[in-house]
Specification:
The chain is α+β, with helices and mostly antiparallel strands. The protein has one domain. It has 1 helix and 4 strands. A 4-stranded antiparallel sheet has the order 2-1-3-4, with no helix packed on it. Strand 3 and strand 4 form a beta hairpin. The longest helix has 12 residues. It is elongated. The termini are far apart.
């Protein structure tokens, strides 16, 4: 009986539904159709996605090192709102980020 009470207490005291915390809210406004040469090992500012943060004062589009992570389907309706975790991968004088985790809103 005591074992049953201990198990029931442990089961009921478990935290459920803990919401994952994300660093920023962002929006994908569309596909970047600009064409330009990209230098090896530098962030490419052409092609990819038009991605920007919506909860910071930095309003410019940011090149993503891994835009394929979002796996947007052909015919996707923009804008697409997301929550993201990321790390700074700026180099060659260009601001860039790599998304480590995301959730569509």
């Amino acid at each position: 009986m005591i074992k049953l009470l201990v198990l029931a207490t442990l089961f009921l005291s478990c935290k459920k539904g803990v919401e994952k915390v994300y660093m920023n809210a962002a929006v994908i406004d569309g596909i970047n159709l600009k064409e330009c040469p990209c230098l090896l090992d530098c962030p490419c500012t052409c092609g990819g996605l038009n991605f920007r943060f919506t909860d910071t004062t930095y309003a410019d589009y940011i090149p993503l090192d891994n835009p394929q992570l979002f796996s947007l389907k052909p015919g996707a309706v923009f804008p697409v709102h997301v929550l993201v975790n990321w790390k700074n991968t700026s180099r060659c004088g260009t601001t860039a980020i790599k998304i480590s985790d995301f959730k569509f809103q």
